[in-house]
Please model this.
Amino acid sequence: MAFKIMSLSEAAAERIREIIEDSDKPVVGVRVGVKNAGCAGMAYTMDYVSEPVKGDDHVQDKGLDVYVEPKATMFLLGTVMDFEQSKMSSGFTFKNPNQTGECGCGESVQLKPADLKAIAEARVHV
Model:
């Protein structure tokens, strides 16, 4: 069975809903991607979307819209986005089966591309 490109934990969905409700401009969802950064090589990116970007992969989960940059799909396939809060910090985290390592400071990760066949199957089931 194919799985979604990405999914949201209940905590992440709850936090995204709060952000959308509190925003002073229209927000229709979030856009997730990756960029070259840090000592491990890559970092996750997240932006709020007021208008979907043509060509993005679109995932609906828990009543929310998540848009994934096309170049990031191969690194994010099967990822669960979570929101964690502690006394010292709070933020979105990514439980990613494609992650092979991370730097000591937690700013960047090592990611391997997912299987192209799995990506094609995930896109068919959107």
